[in-house]
From TrEMBL:
Name of this chain's protein: glucan endo-1,3-beta-D-glucosidase
Enzyme kind, highest EC tier: hydrolase
The reaction(s) this protein catalyses: Hydrolysis of (1->3)-beta-D-glucosidic linkages in (1->3)-beta-D-glucans
EC number: 3.2.1.39
Entry's family note: Belongs to the glycosyl hydrolase 17 family.
InterPro entries, alphabetized: GH, Glyco_hydro_17, Glyco_hydro_17_plant
SUPFAM superfamilies according to UniProt: (Trans)glycosidases (SSF51445)
Protein origin, superkingdom: Eukaryota
PANTHER family registered for this protein in UniProt: GLUCAN ENDO-1,3-BETA-GLUCOSIDASE BG1-RELATED-RELATED
Residue ranges crossing the lipid bilayer per the database entry: none
UniProt signal peptide: 1-27
Organism of this sequence: Brassica napus (Rape)
Keyword Cell inner membrane: no
Keywords tagged on the record: Glycosidase, Hydrolase, Signal
Amino acid sequence: MAGRAAMLVNLGTVVMTVLTLASFVEGFGVNWGNIASHPLNPDIVVRMLKENKINKVKLFDADSWTMNALAGSGMEVMVGIPNNLLETLADDYGNAKDWVKENITAYMRKDGVNIKYVAVGNEPFLSAYNGSYLKTTFPALKNIHRALKEAGHTDVMKATIPQNAEVYQSANDKPSEGDFRSDVKQIMLDIVKFFHDNDLPFTVNIYPFLSLYLNQHFPVEYAFFDGNGQTIPDNGKNYDNVFDANYDTLVYALNKAGIKDMKIIVGEVGWPTDGHKYATPKLAEKFYAGLMKRLAKDVGTPLRPEKLEVYLLVYSTKT
């Protein structure tokens, strides 16, 4: 119990830091999950977000209590479809049509929910899933997109698939050598072509913390935005943090697929507060402060210098 209490205090401290910084930064969003040890009433969450000028939210499902709380708020919403529904939606277009009717169309009314994106699955090609969703994700996406289009919603919202940055990689940490992971390359090429043909965005979850977690020799400062660590030159561009390098690795992977201008959304970015020697409130605050300063400048990455679209996720690695 003492450990759980400490975790909540640490997480709460970082949340308050992010909310304080949010008062000075506009245009970013936050992730809102409904799995928590002490869940708040959705009406309270919506009010808290709006009071702190956060007007974009990404959900992991279409929970009716949460959706109803968002109705009339004007907040831009990315509605999520859990991975466990992908097979059902892939197998039968009627199921996708019913899902859209019940979870999207039902909220498309005056003073309804301002739905901008529908996230089909969440990191379905993560290697830890051992290919469980390889055969169902793309068919589910196509069925959902078709159902949205048939319902007349595609003028105001887009379907997408939040992928983990693990779906692409680069040799020698050089973004210019980026390409999609070999075991998912063909399906990713099929998906990004569909995205391109239908003007859909690519959504990616980027976690610089994982570089430290997975590699004990990773240069710590390269995970942050202070520019105090090493600088990696690559193809005429200089990278002083792993977030930029990771993002531009995706850009290069898309370029190699023949796609030059696809919109990219960072669906999740964050830093944990517990569970690892680098997962501390102090380092989490450092990461978020650096990220928020970056967002406040409306600058992107060396390859994509335009303003980034980002959804934060404040979390702990302990359960």
